[in-house]
Fold these 3 entries.
Entry 1:
Amino acid sequence: MTLFELTFSLTALILGLALTHMASNLYKLAHAQRRVRWAPEPLLQAGIVLLVIVFVWVSQWEYRSTTDITYGLILLQTIKLLVLYVAAAACLPEVREGEGVIDLYAHYDRTRRLSFGALALGLVLFSVYRWTSNPDFGWSWAMLFPLAFIVPYVCMMFIRVRWLNILLLGVLLAYFGSSIMGYRLHG
């Protein structure tokens, strides 16, 4: 087993569980049918989280030539993925049998600090990991670009204006989605 296979298996496990959690909750919401009061915010947020999870999973290929890694970096890798799992788990409500009406906006409003806080913390941890795992690390202003996503996340954590949240979610989903669609892997 190579070092990449060892570390990637942990990545695949955590991100696979996050995707499974989201898919299970979406299935249960669809199955609950009329008991669900649908709202765009948690669905847009789930779309963002889905894109992030798949992008993180696929981009792990860039680390396939890793020949050594420290325990600290493995721990940081695990923590940043667990934070992403929390964002995935918080974006859609869990439906329980016999439960009354499921209000997606109420869930979004209740969990937005947790979910957007996890996304913001995840961005910071992913940036720290990228900076500390690169032996040729050198400062540049471009390193701060991913952290620009923190501003809308923090806004949505504290500002309860629905149209603004929907606008920010839509813009983030469109921008991030369009920016990663051209990502290519090279063997």
Entry 2:
Amino acid sequence: MKSKKGSKFEREISGVLSRWWTGGIRDDIFWRTPGSGARATTRMKKKLQTADSAGDIMAIDKIGKKFTKFFLIELKRGYSSKLTILDIIDGPKKKSIILEWWKKAEKERVDSKRKDIILIFKRDRKDPCVAITKKLFNILFKADKIDHIEILKKPYNIYIITLSNFLKVIPKKLLENKYKRVRRRI
């Protein structure tokens, strides 16, 4: 069952991403995917595509379609007691919730033919964070210029940064210009 916290978080992030994408002009470019992408997931099991419906956030205005066509955007809210980095290295009996989220998002990314993943998550009373692939991180950032955590657990290699740093450091135009480099490397 979807929590009210999660739905509220999806609405908040939709507005944040919309304002970021438009330089603060509009808050209505992105919105929650109906059923958090459940329809797309169900149809993918039948080998059917559902336009712009994978992931938790979709573009509802054509100016945001370039972003959501390229990235699968997954959102997670809460999980404070389950969200620990040490779970990743404690051994095979322990499952890391971050890696479980990533594994699910990776399957959806492949099924929906997106190029990369942006996983945005927020623990209770903490700042939201973004998890992205190492490839994308290296294209968009210089590791010595931004605080980050690298998680290397085969087959995954992901970087985590705060959402505020992600949005501050990556102006929309920079991201758009980097698409060509990203496509060549992925």
Entry 3:
Amino acid sequence: MNSGFNVATDQNDNWRTPAWLFKALDTEFLFDVDGAADESNKLCPCFVRDIRNNDGFTNGARVFCNPPYSNIDPFVRRALAGSDLWVFILPARTRAAWFEALIHSPRTEVRWLRKRIAFDPPPGVEASSPRMDTFIAVVR
């Protein structure tokens, strides 16, 4: 079994959303918060480093989230449990529990992408071709 996608490393958790994709989504949704970021990779002025922390989330927030792919579940659970708008960029892992929760929620709109997304690598990591399909999930 390949466990590489589920291990937290720079190879899978710190890749940044391409500017063109974030800009397109931000134009549509006008994000308030980057829900999975730190000072080095934030895409919104307000960002949350730790999903267990409530800082940055206000009632009715519009949250952009490209979560660490080794730990997607808490971000999806938080979005489904709240009243905020969340827009996710996620790998198409159709057998994952978080995927099932998203798909079966009446609050979720799924947008399938025709091509794989080439994310921007973190400093010191060589760029490579996308290894998996990606989709957009909008939780309203």
